[in-house]
Amino acid sequence: MDIRKLIILSVFLGVANAYAQDTTAHSKRVMEQVSPITTLLTESYSSPSLYPFSRKYNYSLLAANLEDSKRDLYLRQEGSGNRALRINSESFLKNLSGISLWGKAYYTNEKVKQVNFNETLDYQYVYPYVMADTIGGDLNAETYYFGGGLSKKIGGLRYGIQGSFRGIQSYRDKDPRPKNISSDIDFSVSVAKELNKQRALSLDLKMRKYNQNNSLQFVNELGFPLVYHDAGLGVYNELLAGTRMQAYYKGLSLGAQLNFLPTDLKGLSVQLGFNRFNLDKELSSISTNISEAKENHAYLLLAYHHQVHNHNFLVRLKGTYVKREGLEATFANTGGVSLYKVSEEVRYEREKLNVKLDATYGKTAKSLSWFLGMDGTFGTDNERYILPDRFIDYQTASVGVFASLTKSLGKTSLSLDMRANQLKVLNSDYSWSNIDTKKGIYQMLNTNYAYLTADIFSVSSSLRADFPLNAKLGAFAKAKGMTTNYTGDYKGTEFLFSFGVLF
Amino acid sequence: MKNVKMIMSTLLALTVLLNACKKSDIPQTTLTVSIVIPKTLEGFTLKSGLVTFKEVNSGRVSTSSAISNNTLVAALQSGSYNIVFEGEIESTTGEKVISKVRAVKDGVIVNGTNLSTELSVFLYKPQEGFVIKEIFYTGTVTKEGKTYNGDKYFIIYNNSENVLYADSLMIAESEFLTTTKRAYTPDVMATDFTSKSIVMIPGTGKTYPVQPGASITIANNAMNHLVYNDLSVDLRNADFELTLLSSINVDNPQVQDLDNIAGYMTMHNRGFKSYVIAKMKGTKDNFLTKQVYNFDYVNSAGKITTTTAYKIPNSWILDAVNLSVASEFNWIVTSPVLDMGWTYCGKVDSDATRYGKSVIRKVAKTETNGRVVLKDTNNSADDFIPESKPSLFK
């Protein structure tokens, strides 16, 4: 049975399961689904043991999404946008006295546009240690995801487990031809104590296992360009550059998360977590790691949701701090089978701090619900390479406003969301003076810097229509558009069209 | 608004403080380099010199001339270093004589706190005679984008002021690759050049005179390649022709063939091999009997491979040219006394831009009689113009 059939089967089982369940009214499910309060609170309820408290109503959905995005200014390693088809299935079955279950599966087929200086998958995981050349191009990728969890109260404690698998394969049909397969397995266990009828405390332990097999080929009989292994900000080991086109990445993340949550979605919620991620990179012909990344990720999420009758007020503060260190090995060619490892030193560092404050107020009613909100974000990012010394350092602040309106028109409900965001760069600096200005790597660093330090103004709008097909089953269609203006008259656009069924 | 500004200022100050606290010290090793004057140069003392360190992982190059009592102390980051010394020695007794010397040591592993190494100098005394003027080894590409072989060639030049004879002049291609460093046992590189592809200009000793400043061309196939490939060359006027594998050999009866002493001279078109010209001493049979070289090495599977080639004594060699590409270069496959650098066409393995390019020796000077003297410092990195337009192409 191939993986696509598995997805279809899981979706079918989800649908069948949902038909068997005793559901609440469709309209309430829709209201919860489209509510900005749900969107903002869901992250606070990521603890598996307490996840059943994240929503009031059970739901299942099956959707297809079409996406197209394009940016003039972008990080060269990640591409200028994508065109994707995603089939998505989700299910959430809440049974607080028994077993609560949830699951998600999706398949994505996408074309990532103009990926350059990177022939490796999952840049956000493996950076800066990608295999690279100066050509690149559009990349085809397929993603398969299955995940789910359960929560059950046993005695005085509530236990939860959650797991997921995400597999991606990417390839290009013309030179350079990467063929990459990555797998990402997430698993977490959780135990919670309900302190009273409204409050619960939980502790989660998390583990993630990441692997990638990254290979590159050229078929042009005349030859091919330099293939190198980026070590950060365009620096690479000359001894490893050339034709070493088979790399392996092995990552392991361990983490813990402490949660204090209201079980009725009202009041203060606190989430404090820490993850440690280690990633090793190997090349097929070298017996030891050529580089290692070690990342510490700490985060704090505070939220307060005040609800009186149909009035909602939510304020949320989220802070994340990420520090990544890259250890790079140096080698000697002693004439043996493999290169001899001489030493290993920290050469790459990146620190990111991000603080975001959200505030939302809204009123819900049968015929018309509305929400208004704003957010402010402060971020710093410092990336540097030591010897040769290069760095990018910038701070940003952004302000966003949004309005959300849901109107019932007979049995149909229409939801309109509008959002605007202005990001300003407060301060920025860089240095890579020790590089040949004619080289493609120099251009890459400059365009990446222009992207990272551009002021950005974006406006987005979406319209969603939900209409019942029968007492339990509803359908929805959603269209979203976004336009972005960057400093220097660069633009970006994004369109999304989604349709599906909700039950 | 005032509060927002205060929060932003605090966050910015915190960021600056965090950045200010960072350390970026990379440990260094104190390397003591001793310049050793061998017994063969007894009576000489070191006058001056410059030591160049190249770290092969990063490509960093540093130099120092702070030599005291034949010793230089350098602080280096850990890594693998190629060290080159170029300097002068002077006689301590009798008439004052100053000579140029060099020393080379590759793959010096630098790590830890302290380390010492020795560089044993050798005399650098370029001789006038036959030199390799040009090697066109990459071949060409047709208009249709297909590779085309058979139009490669060598040009050998009389760089002296005397008539020289090309009879018994051997051209040999290295058995070893400049892109694959191996520990060959026994190691004879200090005394011999290892080859399995050796050709020789025939003659009785004075059959093929070459005038001062004149050259001879040795073509792969001495034919008009323009008939088959507009982007190639007419080699019908070559002085000599190689005998290639029968499947790719086209014989021009008008052009004298070279003797194949061992194997076939196919010429590595990615430029991973090196070439020497040498004068045969004795007969071909004698060479094939006495100059056999059996050696072994550890192959990529970790097993011992035993193989056989021929060794050409360094004392027979008139000129040597190492070739490689930057991304793959591991070592030079000649004694540094013969050639201490390398030249190239293409910067990476299988570089598509290398076709239709050759390496051509630079001109050092032109004598008053019009004779052109080519540059020959026994360092191909300095002596050659890489990626040149082949001189026989129109």
Your description of this structure?
The complex is a heterodimer of chains A (503) and B (394). Chain A has 5 helices and 21 strands. By secondary structure, chain A is mostly beta strands. In chain A, strand 20 (474-486) and strand 21 (490-502) form a beta hairpin. Chain A is globular and about 75 Å long. The relative contact order of chain A is 0.13. Chain B folds into 2 domains: 28-123, Immunoglobulin-like, CATH 2.60.40.2100; 130-388, no CATH class.
Nutshell version of this structure?
The complex is a heterodimer of chains A (503) and B (394). Chain A is mainly beta.
Describe the protein's topology.
The complex is a heterodimer of chains A (503) and B (394).
Chain A: H1 3-20, H2 26-34, H3 36-42, E1 59-71, E2 81-93, E3 99-115, H4 123-126, E4 131-132, E5 137-154, E6 157-171, E7 177-194, E8 199-217, E9 228-232, E10 235-236, E11 246-262, E12 267-283, E13 291-308, E14 311-332, E15 340-363, E16 368-385, E17 390-409, E18 412-431, H5 440-452, E19 456-468, E20 474-486, E21 490-502
Chain B: H1 2-20, E1 28-36, E2 44-55, E3 61-64, E4 71-77, E5 79-91, E6 98-110, E7 114-120, E8 122-123, E9 130-136, E10 140-141, E11 147-148, E12 153-158, E13 164-165, E14 169-174, E15 192-200, E16 209-210, E17 215-219, E18 240-241, E19 256-257, E20 259-262, E21 275-279, H2 284-290, E22 292-298, E23 304-313, E24 317-321, E25 358-361, E26 363-366, E27 372-374, H3 380-383, E28 384-388
Parallel strand pairs in B: 1-7, 17-18, 18-19
Antiparallel strand pairs in B: 1-4, 2-3, 2-5, 5-6, 6-8, 9-12, 9-25, 10-11, 12-17, 13-16, 14-15, 14-21, 15-20, 15-23, 21-24, 22-23, 25-28, 26-27
